[in-house]
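go over my protein:
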Amino acid sequence: MLIVIADNMEESVVLAIQEIGQVKYKPEDLKQALGDADALIVRSATKVTKDLIENTETLKLVIRAGVGIDNIDKDACKEKGIEVRNTPGASANAVAELVLGVMISGLRNVQKAQWQMKNGKWDKKHLTGYEISGKTLGIIGYGRIGSMLAKKAHGLGMKIIAFSPHPRISDEIGEYVEDFDQFLQRADVISLHVPALPNTIGMINKESIAKMKDTAYIINTSRGEIIDEGALYEACKNGKLLGAALDVYPNEPYSGKLLELDNVSFTPHIGAATKEAQNRIGEEVIAILKEKN
């Protein structure tokens, strides 16, 4: 098996994959490297387009080492008989834990306090925050990550409501709210867990933000395109929203105007960046390769 790994992976995972077949790791000319490849492994950085795979006749498998597969042209793969797989469960816990971390940090003004103290400012009286216990967490997209987040947040005393283009509520923790406007009006914190699709891109915009509470806090660990950046900027700057925490962006690395605001926190797409999650992702990738070898 000739396996092309397009993006960064843990060294131990690369070594394990080398035991399955010949590996080309992060080739300079990816399109050329795919000419005689059997399998391609990508993360979020590489876009698997029709143009990228047009010259390969041997490629039979594309593995997304992660959850979302919206960076892969599934129709183009299907036309060439290429199977698309992912590792949906491997990073769910890591992302859910990050959401909890930035949620508590945001509501308690931890980032703002740190920034002030590093700049010689002691402004305790203006840093009164909010507790998450008793608050309503609104989860948009109730799949593996959304439902895992719900369990963790419920254990910390939060009420859970969910909205999804394709509702899959199968537990007694999350209450599915069918009306999106009602969902927006009820949530104290909104966490996004949907792929970038025509019905989700820009769903957090000026109109939807206007329906939220003035103390609402938005967290995005899914895809940057889900949020209208201009609308979020105005809402956070003008006090319509308490703030936001972002881990994903339409263009990465991010250098946009939201960086001006001290009530928006930023992480560089580290939702799945834990040792445990990377090991689980590697295990799932290897299991898929062995299945197909």
